[in-house]
């Protein structure tokens, strides 16, 4: 059934010259970070929860707006986590107004999920010479969305469970092979999985050495995310000096999230590498020290995945 076109509602609409009424940014950063910290302390990787959920296993994809546009960055993590905890199988999320615009209604007693909207407002000030100058000030605003499972009378298409992608356990997957080949990354077979910036090459163990094809593509997605940090690509640098330092841990968090975003976009499970568990303590410490770290890492991961997608050609 085709979904009706609904008036596009912008829940974060604001007057361009007014300071928006929104919760203090620190509150938003602190709230999201506290939830992820709690999960990590329990040994739970928030962004991997959906793949471990009985309701969502094998059917994970990006959370979608009412108009099929995927959510990105930190909102992907927030909505994946809520879907897993609440057992929601629909990928669709929308505001109360977007639901009512489609003649649907949020079920009585249902609680929405707060996500964030990044924008800028214009601030005008006089400089020392008495001239008025305007500047763009970035801000975060939170707003509430509901999963389709919390809404009655939506068109049937919103309630359909996505079909899982079937990957044969031991055979290379043609579409995934083509996708990674299109990046033109220099990938060669060696003894371990790693990206070396000085040579700009990705080393991968033999395909046959992986327990399943899924594990191979999950590790490759992680290394290709690292590959995007090269100065000639996204020039991502966290001040890495040596193995295991703070900059190294931040880059690993970006690659971890990037692999999960890519897996969701391409339809396979992002199996973790064994040694990634060692970074959890670093991420815990980093999140405790910097409430914005998970937002920054998710943003870098999103940019990496979008860059990889732009390398695809028909």
Distance between the termini: 29 Å
Q: What's the helix-strand series?
A: HHHEHEEEEHEEEHHHH
Report the radius of gyration as a whole number of Å.
21 Å
Major sheet summary line? 3 strands, antiparallel
Strand content: 5-15%
Number of helices: 9
Structural class designation: alpha+beta
Count structural domains. 2
Record the strand order, biggest sheet. 1-4-3
Q: What would the average pLDDT be, to the nearest integer?
A: 86
Shape: globular
Total strand segments: 8
What is the helix content? Answer: 25-40%
Question: Ranges with pLDDT <50 over ≥5 residues?
Answer: 1-22
Can you put this structure into words, describing what you see?
The protein is α+β, with helices and mostly antiparallel strands and 314 residues long. The protein has 2 domains: 25-159, no CATH class; 174-310, no CATH class. It has 9 helices and 8 strands. The chain has helices at residues 25-41, 49-52, 73-86, 96-101, 174-181, 213-227, 246-266, 280-289, 293-310, and strands at 93-94, 105-106, 113-126, 132-147, 151-152, 187-189, 194-196, 201-204. The chain has a 3-stranded antiparallel beta sheet with strand order 1-4-3. A 3-stranded mixed beta sheet has the order 6-8-7, covered by helices on one side. Helix 1 (25-41) packs antiparallel against helix 8 (280-289), helix 6 (213-227) crosses helix 7 and helix 7 (246-266) crosses helix 9. The protein is globular. It starts with 24 loop residues before the first helix and ends with a helix. Mean pLDDT is 86; it is low at 1-22. It comes from Spirosoma profusum. One of its GO terms (molecular function) is single-stranded DNA binding. Residues 27-146 form the N-terminal domain. Residues 1-24 are annotated as: Disordered. Residues 175-300 form the Polyvalent protein metallopeptidase domain.
């Amino acid at each position: 059934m085709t979904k009706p076109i609904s008036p596009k509602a912008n829940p974060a609409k604001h007057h361009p010259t007014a300071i928006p009424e929104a919760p203090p940014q620190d509150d938003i950063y602190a709230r999201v970070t506290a939830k992820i910290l709690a999960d990590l302390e329990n040994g739970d990787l928030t962004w991997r929860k959906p793949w471990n959920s009985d309701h969502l296993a094998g059917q994970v994809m990006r959370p979608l707006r009412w108009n099929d546009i995927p959510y990105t960055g930190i909102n992907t993590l927030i909505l994946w986590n809520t879907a897993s905890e609440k057992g929601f199988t629909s990928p669709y999320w929308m505001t109360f107004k977007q639901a009512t615009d489609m003649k649907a209604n949020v079920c009585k007693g249902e609680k929405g999920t707060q996500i964030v909207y990044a924008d800028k407002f214009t601030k005008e000030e006089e400089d020392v010479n008495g001239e008025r100058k305007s500047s763009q000030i970035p801000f975060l605003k939170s707003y509430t969305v509901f999963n389709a499972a919390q809404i009655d009378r939506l068109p049937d298409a919103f309630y359909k469970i996505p079909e899982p992608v079937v990957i044969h356990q031991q055979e290379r997957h043609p579409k995934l092979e083509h996708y990674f080949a299109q990046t033109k990354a220099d990938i060669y077979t060696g003894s371990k999985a790693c990206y070396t910036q000085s040579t700009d090459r990705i080393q991968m163990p033999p395909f046959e050495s992986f327990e399943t094809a899924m594990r191979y593509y999950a590790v490759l997605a992680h290394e290709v995310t690292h590959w995007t940090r090269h100065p000639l690509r996204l020039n991502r640098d966290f001040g890495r000096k040596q193995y295991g330092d703070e900059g190294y841990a931040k880059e690993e968090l970006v690659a971890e999230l990037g692999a999960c975003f890519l897996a969701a976009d391409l339809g396979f499970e992002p199996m973790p590498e064994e040694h990634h568990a060692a970074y959890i303590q670093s991420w815990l410490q980093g999140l405790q020290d910097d409430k914005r770290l998970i937002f920054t890492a998710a943003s870098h991961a999103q940019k990496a995945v979008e860059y990889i997608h732009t390398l695809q050609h028909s």
